[in-house]
Structure formats: C-alpha cells, structure tokens
C-alpha cells in the first residue's frame, strides 16, 4: 500500500511540475533573421512579409513570446555566416539547394 501511495505522490508531483512549466512563457524582445542573397533582396523581403506574424504565433504555441521579428538580407553569403558567428543575428536562413559539401579522399587500409 505504501508503494502505491508513493507512486501516486510522485505522479501528482510530476504532473504539477509539468503543468507549471507549460504555463510559463519566455519573453524575447527581438528575434533577427537574415537571409542569404539567393535572390534580389526586394524579392526576399516581399516574399517574407508574413513571416514575422507566423513566427510569433508559432513560437507562442511553444512558450516563447517574441516582441519583434526583424528580417534582413545579407550583402553576400559570407556576411550572413559572419553575422551568425558574431551573434548579431539569431537565425541565418541558408537555402538547402545552394549549400555544398566538400568531400575528402578516403584511402583504404
């Protein structure tokens, strides 16, 4: 009987902690996206007009309230990578079709 009571208490405590964590919202003032210039900057900015609202709504479902979503286009691919490395942007948007892998030559033993 004591085992069942202990198991029940652990279950109740676990559910209480989970519920408390689920209700907590993390506040973010700003989230910055930067796209690489895979197209003309005006085309990218026009095509992503609704992205800030979509990101805010989806992130709110996951417990993040974002005040502002800023979107920009890098001057070149390296600029976007450098901005990510420097921490001046939060997300660098790199299209999958434009990246490349470098293969090395394998030798057999």
Question: What does this protein structure show overall?
Answer:
This protein is of the alpha/beta class and 109 residues long. It has a domain at 36-96. Helices cover 46% and strands 21% of the residues. It is built from four helices and three strands; from the N terminus they run αβααβαβ. The protein has a three-stranded parallel sheet with strand order 2-1-3.
Q: What's the short story on this structure?
A:
The protein has 109 residues and is α/β, with parallel strands linked by helices.
Q: Main sheet, how many strands, which sense, barrel?
A: 3 strands, parallel
How much β-strand is present in the residues?
A: 15-25%
What is the average per-residue confidence, as pLDDT, rounded to a whole number?
78
Number of strands: 3
Distance between the termini: 63 Å
Strand order of the largest sheet: 2-1-3
Principal-axis shape:
globular
> Number of helical segments?
4
Order of helices and strands: HEHHEHE
List the SSEs and their pairings:
Layout: H1 2-23, E1 26-35, H2 41-47, H3 51-61, E2 64-73, H4 77-86, E3 91-93
List descriptors.
alpha/beta; 21% strand; single chain; 4 helices
